[in-house]
Design brief:
The protein is α/β, with parallel strands linked by helices. Helix content is 50%, strand content 15%. The strands form two sheets. It has a five-stranded parallel sheet with strand order 2-3-1-4-8. A three-stranded antiparallel sheet has the order 6-5-7. The radius of gyration is 17 Å and the shape is globular. The N and C termini lie close together (10 Å). The structure holds BIS(adenosine)-5'-pentaphosphate. The site of BIS(adenosine)-5'-pentaphosphate has 35 residues, from helix 1, helix 2, helix 3, helix 6 and strand 6.
Length: 219
């Protein structure tokens, strides 16, 4: 199954993508994670992307389209994948469709998570992420058992450089202007499903399974 996760920063895309990937044995392709790894390693992609990410802006389309083209051509994507954080502009959405049409493997479903801005701001400014396994925690609503330590793998928890109030506000502005319009594109193609992202993590997960069963049953 080829799945796209849409939704504002902090809407829960990464949390749900990780759960779904584990259950369905397909990779979570997170462009944010790929870019952060490139920044850490100081690769040419990382050097170019860092300024945009620190400012809360989008990395240029041509870089992102090339990155996704290479990633979904990998062996582990043959049976499907979850795109978490791509596409983020109409140009990226169209380029993705073109590359998938050329191999006869179109998207099956696009899922859009809805969460109000004040909750997004609360989630992101309190988020802590594991450096080793990528699991997310929240200092108030989902704290780890031991301060600064991942419950799952014992890795160190850190706060992302773009999870401060100023950068989060910019990311939300950029989302509204450049990414939110993509939902109309997928609605027209009749593959869009909208999800209330304010519910509990397990309830959302169950809702996603229901959507995916409907999609695979209709194929
Ligand atoms: P990216 O890493 O993709 O960040 P994002 O879209 O801003 O999304 P987040 O990871 O912040 O949020 P999420 O929806 O995954 O939420 P999460 O599950 O973690 O991108 C970062 C930057 O990279 C961009 O700003 C841009 O510069 C660049 N970039 C990436 N892709 C690009 C592209 N395609 N084009 C151009 N530039 C690109 O959850 C958040 C918090 O909420 C966590 O603490 C979690 O525990 C909690 N939580 C999750 N679900 C729930 C729930 N149901 N109830 C309560 N709390 C919850």
């Amino acid at each position: 199954m080829r799945i796209v996760f849409l939704g504002a920063p902090g809407a829960g895309k990464g949390t749900q993508a990780r759960l779904l990937a584990e259950k369905h044995h397909i990779p979570q392709v997170s462009t944010g994670d790929i870019l952060r790894a490139a920044v850490r390693e100081g690769t040419p992609l990382g050097v170019e992307a860092k300024g945009y990410m620190d400012r809360g802006e989008l990395v240029p389309d041509q870089l992102m389209i090339g990155l996704i083209r290479d990633r979904i051509a990998c062996e582990d994507c043959v049976k499907g994948y979850i795109l978490d954080g791509f596409p983020r502009t109409l140009e990226q959405a169209r380029a993705l469709d073109e590359m998938l049409a050329s191999v006869g493997a179109p998207l099956d479903v696009a899922i859009d998570f809805h969460v109000p801005n004040e909750e997004l701001l609360r989630r992101l400014t309190g988020r802590r992420v594991c450096r080793s396994c990528g699991a997310s925690f929240h200092v108030v609503s989902a704290p780890p058992q031991h301060d600064g330590v991942c419950d799952h793998c014992g890795g160190e928890l850190y706060q992302r450089a773009d999870d401060n109030v100023e950068t989060v506000s910019k990311r939300l502005e950029v989302y509204t202007a450049q990414t939110a319009p993509i939902t109309g594109y997928y609605r027209q193609r009749d593959i869009l499903h909208e999800v209330d992202g304010t519910r509990g993590i397990e309830e959302i997960q169950a809702g996603l399974e229901h959507i995916l069963m409907g999609v695979s049953g209709a194929k």
